[in-house]
Design a protein that fits this description.
The chain is mainly α. 73% of the residues lie in helices and 0% in strands. Helix 6 packs parallel to helix 9 (298-317) and helix 13 (383-407) crosses helix 14. It is rod-shaped and about 210 Å long. Belongs to the MAP65/ASE1 family. This is 65-kDa microtubule-associated protein 8. Keywords: Coiled coil, Microtubule. Residues 38-65, 157-184, 231-262 form a coiled coil.
Length: 446
């Protein structure tokens, strides 16, 4: 910058009123009019020159600072753009200029739209990561049985599509596992409902004991009820119900069997048996057979059990009558087979025990059934011999009749029925001629 003294112009030259030269000229006119000292004039002019230099220096410094800030902003924008490309896993961006040209502001303005676009992409990608990772954490917590969810932390240095696909694959795997677990829970719930229905239990109470949320419907939000612990407890509950069902079925079958035996023993009328007909059919159902609602309730079992107890008491009161009936059956078998009465002494002892009341009823009837079985077995072994004996005795009867017929002098007379006697006499002679053979067979058979 030149000295203020050099800005003077020839007198009479027109100067703009706003210029420094005009103001300096006006200042000199004032000094001339006032009579300002020359040294003072030079001092003031030097001060003015220094002040002007300071103003220019401030302006230069300000401009330089702006240039530095533009360089820094441009460098930061380029660095941020590069980091965004790396974090999003992209190699390039079509909107970014290949070569930076022009002033700093032009260069900054040229990269700003591409940078803003990349920032928007990052925000959208980050939102996707947060949604996927939040869902992963929620499902994983449900499977693990954890309460509450922590805030998701996303690694913003790797927001690539490859990483996002990895999280999405993990999410799909967890969703499939959750779906499988929910299906398993529903299967257990169906089994529990079926068992409870058959045994007359309240399935809601059973499920509530496992976990209260199991009472939610299938369309409601399912949380904290698909963990390994819940599945294990459901499985244990199902196994317990299955065992209880089998125990009740077995108990009912034994009771029905005992009831049927008592009916047969006591010759119970069909009218008295009819109310238990359906229960008897249920008891005969196979293990894998379908049972209707209420088939194995405690009330049903207690009803049959009470009837068995009642009939047992009735059987005890009729034990003497039953014993005599079975003894008569043994007598009849022996009489038909022409056998001596077996076990006479034993049956007399049993009768004495009955009279004294010191006997186990079931053992007594079992013993009598064994006697009847042995008597029938003995009678069966004698059947062939007895048939031959009966034939031989019948032949002897025919022989006696034939002798009496032969002594009858009127056997050839013409009378009513004479021809029938003649035919019988012919048959009798044939039978009598076989008597030696029948007798020999009978002897050999014995």
């Amino acid at each position: 910058m030149g000295s203020l003294k050099m800005t003077e112009k020839a007198p009479g030259a027109a100067l703009p009123e706003s210029s420094c030269a005009y103001l300096l000229q006006e200042l000199k006119m004032i000094w001339n009019e006032v009579g300002q000292d020359q040294n003072e004039r030079e001092r003031i002019l030097e001060e003015l020159e220094q002040e002007c230099q300071e103003v220019y220096r401030r302006k230069v410094n300000s401009a330089n600072m702006s240039r530095i800030q533009l360089h820094q902003a441009l460098a930061e924008s380029e660095a941020e753009f590069t980091n965004l490309l790396l974090s999003l896993g992209e190699r390039s961006f079509p909107g970014r200029p290949e070569k930076m040209a022009g002033t700093l502001k032009e260069q900054l303005n040229s990269i700003t739209p591409a940078l803003q676009e990349m920032q928007m992409r990052k925000e959208a990608r980050l939102k996707q990561f947060i949604e996927v990772q939040t869902e992963i954490q929620r499902i994983a917590s449900e499977i693990a049985g954890r309460l509450g969810n922590k805030a998701v932390t996303v690694n913003e240095e790797d927001l690539s599509l490859k990483k996002l696909e990895e999280f999405q694959s993990e999410l799909q795997r967890l969703k499939r596992e959750k779906s499988d677990r929910l299906c398993k829970v529903e299967e257990y719930k169906v089994l529990i409902h079926n068992f409870a229905k058959v045994m007359g239990m309240d399935p809601s109470k059973i499920l509530a004991n496992v976990h209260p949320r199991l009472l939610d419907g299938p369309n409601e939000q399912q949380t904290k009820n698909i963990s390994d612990d819940i599945l294990k407890r459901l499985n244990v509950t199902v196994e317990q119900l299955k065992e209880e069902k089998n125990n009740r079925r077995e108990k009912l079958q034994n009771l029905v069997k005992a009831l049927t035996n008592l009916w047969d023993t006591l010759d119970t009328a069909m009218e008295e048996r009819q109310p238990y007909g359906q229960i008897k059919i249920l008891a005969m159902t196979s293990i894998n057979g379908m049972l209707g609602p209420g088939s194995l309730t405690l009330e049903t079992i207690q009803q049959v059990e009470s009837e068995v107890q009642r009939l047992n008491q009735l059987k005890a009161s009729k034990m003497k009558e039953l014993f005599l009936k079975k003894r008569a059956e043994v007598d009849e078998i022996c009489k038909k087979s022409h056998m001596d009465m077996p076990y006479q002494t034993e049956m007399d002892k049993i009768m004495n025990l009955i009279m004294s009341g010191d006997v186990v009823h079931d053992d007594l009837l079992k013993t009598m059934d064994e006697y009847i079985y042995k008597a029938k077995e003995e009678a069966t072994s004698r059947k062939d011999i007895m048939d031959k004996v009966e034939k031989w005795m019948a032949s002897c009867d025919e022989e006696r009749w034939l002798e009496e017929y032969s002594r009858d002098e009127r056997r050839y007379s013409i009378s009513r029925g004479a021809h029938k006697h003649l035919k019988r006499a012919e048959r009798a002679r044939i039978i009598v001629n076989k008597i030696p053979v029948n007798g020999q067979d009978t002897i050999l058979g014995t």
